[in-house]
């Protein structure tokens, strides 16, 4: 069926025996338009799509199904693809969308690569009162659709899955919007919604494992600008930029200082493996985060400037920080489990001048005070609790096992109560301006104390102390005119589904996606978004090949075989199950220079022959510090003075492959204002190149300035202050080749990588 003009659906309509509805010219008016009340549109699985797709997904235009000003409309059973927005509805209360696949719609072309981040890829969700989000496209975009229901819908290969704008009392249940390059679900000024049992996994951009980890404001669930009293339960939003991202909005922070995204319940979700935060919730009041999995995140929960949050019964392991709260007040951190975190709970005040002076800071204040940390278990954390300039802190009934520093108190912090804790190892540090008095704590004989800490009473033995902490009454409750109606996550009652009766929630979050490996190292992002492991893929694991190379074989539990490889090389393993890695190395010893080829069969399909090169230049690398007065951009004389000074470090290396980030090359030295001189000699085996020379490609990725010389001739020159940038030049190598790389770093991110690639 071909639609030359939009078709208006004014009564119940079923499209029988139609495999596809092709739209000749997609427009924002929509291909199928519903503008009458009480209409049911059943497409019976038909594909609604443009007759001719745009060349790339960032050029997709128009809208597929449009609902305008109609009540109680139902959309069923369709596949809508190839549009800027697959389904768009406005002023359509009571809308139901069920069993519709909105995969393959608009997504931006990402400029970041595996070796460098491009800042243009950041997405901006802070404004949408004028539908600014529409520039990013969507699978489903609803505006002013109170009471909407979205059930059993799916999306892949898009940017944003579901957007709810000014939609109150909506229900989003049992959908799967995973592997999106922006947001799985986004709410704007939408309250009293129920979001239950959905998948928003791998909604991510801005990540390259071991190179950069920014997330670029991608997230599984986005909650922005005055969204309150919502329920988010039993969802899986793992491997995202953030798992769950809640922000009060500019109305609160910049204009009124009031309002926020308040009183939301986030219950028994899995937000693990987030690049940044499992949960971010800022500038908001009385939110509840209970029973969630927040493992392997940079921050399990980031709750800056939040007030009266309840953080209870969550699991946080292998996080850089478990719970991080700056300028927070009256937050309760109860019954959580922190395992192998660098910092378990981190509370602090710092001089955020702009935020303190903002409308929010002036109206709400910015102290860090009245925080309560009770009944938590900290195991094998470097620092369990760190408080810096946090007043009236309560630390009661916690267990500290295998922690280097169970308690670290700094600045103008004060402890209101330190009662009934089990300190089983480590060093208690009080570097604050106040003394600390503990009551009824068990302190193991091996625990050390630094600073004024007084233990007035200790339990007689570990067993008695454990019983008192875990079976005794609460030691302290903040005075609260509105007490919590429950004491543990297991006591909560919520609706399991929108149409089911209230029930005690005892179900676990959704299981991991079958066949998709867990862990940030398996987040793979190409120019169109995250790889979904649905189609086999064979690619270089990294571009720099020195004494070995690696090929990544991707897919969901499918067999692979190396069917051919250069005679002088070996592959390990030759066979396996995807996802897997094939390591390629010379058969004997280390070669100074040797091209090679390899071919892999995956799921019975053979890849094209892949060509690489093993090379080693025996680099001599020297590092120098320089002062701004010797800015190397100003003159070559300044550069000569820098490299004539004594190096602060010198090393040998087979490759030039450094992503320092913000750390710098020398510990305990400034990460800024350093220079690198790398010199090496590359020998080409005789007879390898026709007529005595060989054509290849030199490539650098640098932040900041770089110059590359081949046999004294400058072949790459980007002697500027810049973000990570790729530069390349085709070169001709001779039998013996002298290489020199000059590099300087000004500030911020630091990166220097040098590649040699075949010219194909």
Describe the overall structure:
- The protein has 760 residues and is mainly beta.
- Among the domains are: 533-612, Immunoglobulins (Immunoglobulin-like, Sandwich), CATH 2.60.40.10; 619-758, Jelly Rolls (Sandwich).
- The chain is built from five helices and 67 strands.
- The strands form eleven sheets. It has a 17-stranded parallel beta sheet that branches. It has a 17-stranded parallel beta sheet, with no helix packed on it.
- Strand 55 and strand 56 (605-606) form a beta hairpin.
- The longest helix is centred in the middle third of the chain and has 10 residues, at 462-471.
Which short descriptors sum up this protein?
about 750 residues, mainly beta, Jelly Rolls, about 45% strand
